[in-house]
């Protein structure tokens, strides 16, 4: 008996050491994430912000023991804001780097090119920036998810703010590609529903993306004297527009101005105290908005590392990495098809709040933040006061209205 | 009426800015016979120099106006000595490749030094604000842009027609061999011309800094515009650069105002029309 017990104990010891050995081995095998962002040209700052957010999430997760005992490893590729380059990058990441999941994409144009190819590589793709409704609408597929606010949600927020003003006649200034035109279409649709008396200009302004001189467009709006102007310009274009508009007295005119992406931190920090006060501006995430411990920890860690508050793109990429971690833990494995299924309908905690990927179209039910700019001497960027966080449920159209048919 | 005045003024301001960028491109082509793809990047360096000197070091804008172009001119002289001077006799494709490489190098260097963020430069106090012009409001800064354009354009014209250095440059442009035979130090002239062209581009960058957002890649936007200016005005022609810039300025100023739906294609339509009617450009001497 005693002999048997010794044998039994040593067998357990051998088994335990084998198991320990194999888990050590597993720890050396990282789970690979492939990320495709824009790292060159005028919009390179968006790739940098996304990388900062994703790197922060990966480091936090690895510092606390990884996922299923395995560390995360992330590889970045530059889309050069071209769909074809992004598709090549995606194939390279999947077939050569053998990544387990994909994330990324700035620009709606790039996303509409990439998303139809995602099923070919049989890898879950979490979109964190590109805002065209199509990727969770008519182009949706079982492999593609979006964690970030889309144009629908963003512009429904703008229309909600617009409906609360006295303005009846509206025009727009937006970039001359799908994003600017879709933004204007949605604005008319949503504001028309909220305020049936609203009238919309039949000569809206769509300057080319990358226009350096907005003066003719600004003059055209001032001449037309509408009650309200909806601006969907973003990034460097928006910075140019705001400065040139300030010079021409645009913000002293008697009309309401709503900018759907005016509260992006890269725009506010570029402009500093040149940002006019009293303008209604929106963003897809405002660092000072969501009141939850995840956001507090994220903003604190980001600030400590980079000295600035995080932008929406940083939050989105950070959230995507945590979404993936959550999906692995839910599925209990890293298998691509299992992750794809785990993401569908999944709810997880992100800085922006509790996020759910809808089963019907894989769009996260999240809402934008809108506020009125106010100069704050204690802050390097303008503050939003009052601030409105729009609930995802209130700004996300029903699945039936998205054009997505995942059930086939 | 007001809208026409506004469009006219805007066309002039934009045209002058385009002139500052395109004229250097044209001078460099006229003398060195290379199409400098990196020219927009030199403009960008001017803007970043203005941002560094005023925004980061807190110096007055006027210092940046002088120091920015000088710094870029010195850098350009070094680049010409190290890189470009070896390839003047090579096919035009080689020079295109080399200057394109230079553009990429400068773009990456800018990201490395200044990051990818967007920056702005504040105009000097005296140039802030607006004034009324025939019922329209215009920025005081646009007056300054026009003044700089007149000074630079006039100065260059006097330089090339009235000074020995200018005449030497023109001589080197029209016949290198003969210039060498009469004792002109042609390599030195080439270095000087490249530095001059780069310095004017950088001046354009400094001038643009208080009205344009500064970010990596801003040079690529402007280079396309400059090429259109050069095609419209005529390759290698100094007055052509001026005329081409004013025409493109007008296409933007009036086109964006009165035909906004066509604002993207109008510059190319303008270029195509000029090419059809006068393939060598409005002021070009002969087709290449």
Automatic annotation (TrEMBL), chain A:
<keyword id="KW-0732">Signal</keyword>
<dbReference type="Pfam" id="PF13458">
    <property type="entry name" value="Peripla_BP_6"/>
</dbReference>
<dbReference type="InterPro" id="IPR000709">
    <property type="entry name" value="Leu_Ile_Val-bd"/>
</dbReference>
<dbReference type="InterPro" id="IPR051010">
    <property type="entry name" value="BCAA_transport"/>
</dbReference>
<dbReference type="InterPro" id="IPR028081">
    <property type="entry name" value="Leu-bd"/>
</dbReference>
<dbReference type="GO" id="GO:0006865">
    <property type="term" value="P:amino acid transport"/>
</dbReference>
<comment type="similarity">
    <text>Belongs to the leucine-binding protein family.</text>
</comment>
<dbReference type="InterPro" id="IPR028082">
    <property type="entry name" value="Peripla_BP_I"/>
</dbReference>
<feature type="signal peptide">
    <location>
        <begin position="1"/>
        <end position="26"/>
    </location>
</feature>
<protein>
    <submittedName>
        <fullName>Amino acid/amide ABC transporter substrate-binding protein (HAAT family)</fullName>
    </submittedName>
</protein>
<keyword id="KW-0813">Transport</keyword>
<keyword id="KW-0029">Amino-acid transport</keyword>
<feature type="domain" description="Leucine-binding protein">
    <location>
        <begin position="30"/>
        <end position="365"/>
    </location>
</feature>
Automatic annotation (TrEMBL), chain B:
<dbReference type="GO" id="GO:0005886">
    <property type="term" value="C:plasma membrane"/>
</dbReference>
<feature type="transmembrane region" description="Helical">
    <location>
        <begin position="65"/>
        <end position="84"/>
    </location>
</feature>
<feature type="transmembrane region" description="Helical">
    <location>
        <begin position="140"/>
        <end position="160"/>
    </location>
</feature>
<feature type="transmembrane region" description="Helical">
    <location>
        <begin position="227"/>
        <end position="251"/>
    </location>
</feature>
<dbReference type="InterPro" id="IPR001851">
    <property type="entry name" value="ABC_transp_permease"/>
</dbReference>
<dbReference type="InterPro" id="IPR052157">
    <property type="entry name" value="BCAA_transport_permease"/>
</dbReference>
<keyword id="KW-1003">Cell membrane</keyword>
<dbReference type="GO" id="GO:0022857">
    <property type="term" value="F:transmembrane transporter activity"/>
</dbReference>
<feature type="transmembrane region" description="Helical">
    <location>
        <begin position="42"/>
        <end position="59"/>
    </location>
</feature>
<feature type="transmembrane region" description="Helical">
    <location>
        <begin position="12"/>
        <end position="35"/>
    </location>
</feature>
<keyword id="KW-0029">Amino-acid transport</keyword>
<feature type="transmembrane region" description="Helical">
    <location>
        <begin position="258"/>
        <end position="277"/>
    </location>
</feature>
<feature type="transmembrane region" description="Helical">
    <location>
        <begin position="181"/>
        <end position="207"/>
    </location>
</feature>
<comment type="similarity">
    <text>Belongs to the binding-protein-dependent transport system permease family. LivHM subfamily.</text>
</comment>
<keyword id="KW-0472">Membrane</keyword>
<feature type="transmembrane region" description="Helical">
    <location>
        <begin position="96"/>
        <end position="114"/>
    </location>
</feature>
<keyword id="KW-0813">Transport</keyword>
<dbReference type="Pfam" id="PF02653">
    <property type="entry name" value="BPD_transp_2"/>
</dbReference>
<protein>
    <submittedName>
        <fullName>Amino acid/amide ABC transporter membrane protein 1 (HAAT family)</fullName>
    </submittedName>
</protein>
<dbReference type="GO" id="GO:0006865">
    <property type="term" value="P:amino acid transport"/>
</dbReference>
<keyword id="KW-0812">Transmembrane</keyword>
<keyword id="KW-1133">Transmembrane helix</keyword>
């Amino acid at each position: 008996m005693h002999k048997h017990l010794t044998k039994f104990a040593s067998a357990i010891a051998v088994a335990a050491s084998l198991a320990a050995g194999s888990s050590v081995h597993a720890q050396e095998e990282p789970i690979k994430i492939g990320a495709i962002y824009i790292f060159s040209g005028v919009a390179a700052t968006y790739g940098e912000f996304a990388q900062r957010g994703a790197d922060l999430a990966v480091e936090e997760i690895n510092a606390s023991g990884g996922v299923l005992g395995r560390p995360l490893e992330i590889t970045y590729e530059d889309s050069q804001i071209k769909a074809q380059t992004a598709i090549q990058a995606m194939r390279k990441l999947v077939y050569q780097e053998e990544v387990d999941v994909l994330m990324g994409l700035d620009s709606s144009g790039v996303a509409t090119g990439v998303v139809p190819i995602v099923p070919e590589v049989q890898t879950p793709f979490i979109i964190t920036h590109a805002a065209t409704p199509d990727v969770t609408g008519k182009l949706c597929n079982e492999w593609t998810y979006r964690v970030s606010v889309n144009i629908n949600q963003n512009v429904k927020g703008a229309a909600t703010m617009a409906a609360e003003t006295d303005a009846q006649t509206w025009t727009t200034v937006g970039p001359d590609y799908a994003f600017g035109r879709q933004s204007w279409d949605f604005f008319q649709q949503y504001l028309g529903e909220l305020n049936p008396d609203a009238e919309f200009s039949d000569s809206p302004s769509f300057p080319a993306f990358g226009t350096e001189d907005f003066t003719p467009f600004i003059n055209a709006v001032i001449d037309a004297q509408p009650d309200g102007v909806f601006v969907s310009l973003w990034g460097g274009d928006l910075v140019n527009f705001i400065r040139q508009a300030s010079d021409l007295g645009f913000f002293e005119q008697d009309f309401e101005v709503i900018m759907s992406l005016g509260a992006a931190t890269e725009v506010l920090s570029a402009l500093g105290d040149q940002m006019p006060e009293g303008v209604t501006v929106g963003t897809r995430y405002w660092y000072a908005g969501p009141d939850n411990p995840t956001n507090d920890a994220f903003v604190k860690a980001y600030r400590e590392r980079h000295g600035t508050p995080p932008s929406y793109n940083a939050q989105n990429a950070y959230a995507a990495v945590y979404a993936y971690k959550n999906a692995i833990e839910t599925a209990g494995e890293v298998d691509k098809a299992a992750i794809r299924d785990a993401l569908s309908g999944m709810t997880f905690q992100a800085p922006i709040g509790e996020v759910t990927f809808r089963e019907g179209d894989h769009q996260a039910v999240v809402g934008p933040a809108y506020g009125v700019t106010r100069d704050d001497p204690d802050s390097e960027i303008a503050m939003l006061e009052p601030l409105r966080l729009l609930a995802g449920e209130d700004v996300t159209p029903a699945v039936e209205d998205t054009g997505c048919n995942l059930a086939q | 009426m007001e809208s026409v005045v506004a469009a006219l003024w805007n066309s002039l301001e934009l045209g002058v800015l385009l002139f500052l960028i395109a004229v250097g491109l044209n001078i460099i082509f006229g003398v060195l016979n290379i199409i400098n793809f990196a020219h927009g990047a030199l403009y960008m360096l001017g803007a970043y120099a203005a941002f560094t000197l005023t925004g980061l070091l807190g110096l007055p804008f006027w210092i940046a106006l002088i120091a920015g172009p000088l710094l870029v001119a010195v850098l350009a002289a070094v680049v010409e000595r190290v890189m470009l001077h070896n390839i003047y006799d090579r096919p035009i494709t080689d020079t295109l490749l080399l200057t394109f490489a230079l553009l990429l190098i400068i773009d990456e260097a800018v990201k490395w030094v200044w990051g990818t963020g967007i920056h702005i430069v504040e105009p000097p106090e005296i140039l802030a604000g607006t004034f009324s012009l025939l019922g329209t409001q215009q920025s005081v800064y646009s007056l300054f842009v026009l003044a700089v354009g007149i000074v630079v354009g006039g100065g260059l014209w006097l330089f090339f027609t009235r000074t020995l250095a200018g005449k030497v440059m023109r001589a080197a442009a029209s016949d290198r061999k003969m210039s060498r035979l009469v004792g002109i130090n042609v390599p030195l002239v080439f270095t000087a011309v490249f530095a001059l062209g780069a310095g004017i581009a950088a001046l354009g960058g400094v001038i643009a800094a208080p009205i344009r957002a500064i970010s990596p890649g801003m040079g690529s936007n402007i280079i396309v515009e400059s090429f259109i200016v050069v095609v419209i005005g005529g390759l290698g022609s100094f007055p052509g650069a001026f005329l081409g810039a004013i025409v493109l300025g007008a296409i933007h100023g009036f086109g964006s105002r009165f035909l906004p739906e066509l604002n993207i294609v109008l510059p190319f339509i303008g270029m195509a029309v000029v090419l059809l009617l006068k393939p060598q450009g409005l002021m070009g001497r002969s087709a290449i």
